[in-house]
Amino acid sequence: DVQLVESGGGSVEVGGSLRLSCAASGITYRSYSMGWFRQKPGLGREGVAAIDTRGSVTIADSVKGRFSISKDNAGSTLYLQVNSLEIEDTAMYYCAVQTKATVDTVIAIPDFRFRGQGTQVTVS
Prior knowledge:
Oligomer: single chain
Helix content: under 10%
Largest sheet: 7 strands, mixed
Radius of gyration: 13 Å
Number of helices: 0
């Protein structure tokens, strides 16, 4: 089974930075994409960023220029660098994996087949 474990969340001040990590295990698919989505208090899920099997990146307009996504060479750890944090970035951040080589849009990220338990980011 695919398991995704997020870490790196926390409480930061406006303008601060965090590096979220997602440790992935059990992925046996040759082609897959990984991504992050978030859920703000009382709101729906929002795709944030994704990286496909070739390393191409898709990022939501709302975080473009502030957030970046990357993964290690083995594809077992996914990262989300979040900079210049705003109060509106407060949310639970989730890691997700889909068994498709490419990502069409960030909107699809919350529906990826495998999802982690999330890590909380609070900005004040």
